[in-house]
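Q: What changes when magnesium ion is included in the input?
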Amino acid sequence: MKKIILTYEEISKRCKLIGEQLATRYRFNDTPPVFIGVMKGAIPFLTDLVTYVDIPLIIDYIQVGSFNGTESTGTVVLKKDVTQDVRNRDIVIVEDIVDSGISMAFLVDYFQRKYQPKSIVTVALLDKKCNRKVPFELDYAGEEIENVFVMGYGLDYKDLYRNTRYVFVPDEEDIKKCEEISSRY
Ligand code: 5GP
Ligand code: MG
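A: The predicted holo structure follows.
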């Protein structure tokens, strides 16, 4: 049996909690903060999160790759850059999950070097704190989880299962199903 670890109701509560704190943080900004979703996993979370950030803001996306199946490879590559020039802007990097910390550490370093933003804040729905390979601490985390592989609500296996409203720990059947489907193309 697959185990649901966050229902949509629980996800919404976390979006509201973090979203309202971020609204307060940037309420008196002269320029709108830029919320940058890390594709593809963070898209559902970013989409729901910003509905609770009741201030003018800009949405953008960046894409990096590091995961291969259920294992992090440790090397991060940039696949798509942001479209906004975020020099001297307040940016909020939004991730689905922080695991080893390598992707987020890479992104923070990347933005600092290339754009020198005014400030960088990091947010993730899930935090596998126990699994860090590099030191990295999130500014806002929805939920701390143990070292298990999770899927759903943006999180994939072989690019599948991102489209559930809940986050779950897959069972063997779920993984087998993904393998079977992805073997067809
Ligand atoms: P890190 O660089 O922190 O090790 O990994 C970050 C990325 O790996 C996340 O953005 C996510 O795409 C992927 N990832 C980490 N843990 C999981 C997991 O449990 N399930 C899925 N589907 N992806 C994960
Ligand atoms: Mg991700």
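Observations recorded in class: Residues 3-182 form a domain with the Rossmann fold fold (CATH 3.40.50.2020).
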